Amino acid sequence: MTDQTPVAISKDQLLKSGMTEAWVQIPGKGSVRVRGATRGEVFVMQKTRKKGDVAADERKTIALCMVEPKLTEDEVAAWQDTAPAGELEPVAAKIRELSGLSEGADKSRL
User: Is the full-model pTM beyond 0.85?
Assistant: First the structure.
């Protein structure tokens, strides 16, 4: 076991967003780029959640965390209305994964 001297970080480094991004393939269409939600965004989404409205939760999550192309909630709603049933799920699942919220994740960290 080696003793390691702690390395201090600056306030700027601490406050800079460091969310991981990833590409998600949408079969037959191409790829979109998403990022994880920040802790603050997760708190806001939980606070504004409408119980039982899974579609609204999905719209908020994708509108916040899809980087390329960037979509508004209304545009995500239009995509939901025209997409095959499972098309948005891999996008939402990747966002949950990058946010540390996927199945089996320790949600107590948030």
Answer: no
